[in-house]
Amino acid sequence: MRTEGGVAFFPGLARPTVIDLGTLSPADEARMRDLVAAALAAPPAPPPPKGAADYRTTFLSIEDGGDVHQLAISDVDTDPSRRALLDALGELRRAMSRR
Amino acid sequence: MTNATGSTARCFAQPHRHSIFCILPPHVLKSLAENGSADQRRRALETMATDQTIRALRAAMPAPVSRTPAGRRLLEAAEAQKERLIHDAKGRTVLPGAVVRSEGDNPTGDVAVDEAYDGLGATFDFFWDAYGRNSIDDEGMPLIATVHYDQDYNNAFWNSQQMVFGDGDGQLFNRFTIALDVIGHELAHGVTEDESGLVYFYQSGALNESMSDVFGSLIKQYTLRKTADQADWLIGAGLLGDAVDGEALRSMKKPGTAYDDPVLGKDPQPAHMRDYLNTTQDNGGVHINSGIPNHAFYQTAMLIGGYAWERAGRIWYEALRDPSLRPTTTFRRFAILTHMTAGRLYGAGGSEAAAVKEGWKRVGIRV
Ligand SMILES: [Zn+2]
Fold it and tell me: Which of B62, B255, B283, B349 is the most exposed place for a label (fewest CB within 10 A)?
């Protein structure tokens, strides 16, 4: 996953990070798989509202076996499934950085 | 009635508790309220205080009170009052969250809430005092902000209707309400959209970003009463955490030098067209190439001297409002427009137009 945009562009923060769901507990992994499936099944995001600025967009490349799915979720995307996935990924990232 | 500058304004009697309304632009009313004779001050304040009455009228009537220019000016004059609403997202990402401070409420003791409230107030005051602009849309739009958005959220944004501020992670970033120019930057996005709709990609997007930096910096300079040579010309000073090697998000004085840190990387902003970055990241480098018009404004303001919001700022503001400004304008087209605007405002052969031309030349753009 890779996040870019925001009120400033920081080259160091735009680098991709990898989250391996295989390192999670079985329960957490199942929960993440459900969130990913729901987000992929959600209707496509409309373009950002005209005039919106400085929002961040997280680009996800989801690899599962041989399958690769692409997903982009911005701060101004209000779809509940994508928001739930983004919130959960944020929690995972914070947990990883605390370790 | 004669206003503070000695010219005569049209007035008419109104069968209402406010006996006289004068059709005056907002900045003149404000000036009267501050500097006029006792009678002028009373009348100006009364006119400005009709806010609630006009609002009640509007709510009760299906159509606007008046669509005539005079009526519109009257409404604008009457409604030039702040209306701030600060919300708390409580660490979640649902907007706008719960209202925690409304216009006129006392400080809450929550630093982010109170900084947002004060910062929006300073921004409103700047646009009103310096350019006679009544809020984001020049028609008194309420200023809505949400603080405590998400957890460890290292950003602030404008979602086309409101401002949103994260608390920062406390390591790389402090709370995003800490910097007045960042609050001004977000609100200025609303002004830019209202006036020009500069498309948020590539050069027009970088211009959109630059307008927010210009006004964000000017709001801070105005609030601190700093002249161009006294200002720091930084965007987001105080926002980076103590452990970060850097002083701000950006520098208009020296683009590319705001930070150089092992985690954040190095400030990528160019100061000259020869270093313009062609990229698809960041909406085509809108926060990167904005360094070029930012620096042109800095150069122009330094050449003109004095308070940057007075002449350099007015030239940029009026160019932004110019109907010929296209949403997909390039740096060069905008540069030409600022040069023409300087000539229109201060004389084609004046020092201001010369400063604008030289300012753009120093970043590699000829007008
Ligand atoms: Zn911006």
Answer: B62
**Does the distance separating the beta carbons of A51 and B189 come in below 8 Å?**
yes
- Tell me, yes or no, whether B217 lies in a domain: yes
- Which helix (H) or strand (E) segment holds residue A29: the answer is helix A26-41
Unique residue bearing structure tokens 């005092």:
B129
User: Are A13 and B152 within 8 A, CB to CB?
Assistant: no
Cα dist from B179 to A84, B81, B119, B239, whole Å? 30, 23, 8, 6
**B157 in contact with A at a CB cutoff of 8 Å?**
yes
Nearest to B203 by CA among B333, B90, B337, B105: B333
Alpha-carbon distances, residue B189 vs B54, B83, B300, B342 (angstroms): 28, 18, 22, 23
Report how many domains make up chain B: 2
> Are residues B290 and B350 part of one domain?
yes
Domain with B191 in it: what CATH number? Answer: 3.10.170.10
What would the pLDDT profile of B5-31 be if each residue is shown by its tens digit?
Answer: 333 333 333 333 332 333 333 333 444
Question: Taking CA B187 as the corner, what is the angle to CA B183 and CA B190, rounded to the nearest 5 degrees?
Answer: 160
In 3D, which of B46, B56, B153, B28 has the Cα closest to residue B95? B153
Average of per-residue pLDDT across A69-88: 93
Pairwise CA distance, residues B119 & B116, whole Å? 5
Does residue B1 lie within any of the structural domains?
Answer: no
Decide if A96 touches B, using CB distance below 8 A. Answer: no
pLDDT of residue B60: 36
Q: Give every residue of chain B whose pLDDT is below 70, as ranges.
A: 1-79
Best mutation target among B283, B286, B290, B320 (most A Cβ atoms within 10 Å) is B283
DSSP state of B164: E
Q: Is B186 annotated in the active site? A: yes
With beta carbons less than 8 A apart as the criterion, state whether B103 and B120 touch: no
pTM of the shown model: 0.83
Instruction: Please determine, for the modelled complex, whether the ipTM score is greater than 0.85.
Output: yes
Pairwise CB contact (< 8 Å): B200 & A53: yes
B161 with A49: Cβ contact below 8 A? yes
CB of B142 within 8 Å of a chain A CB? The answer is: no
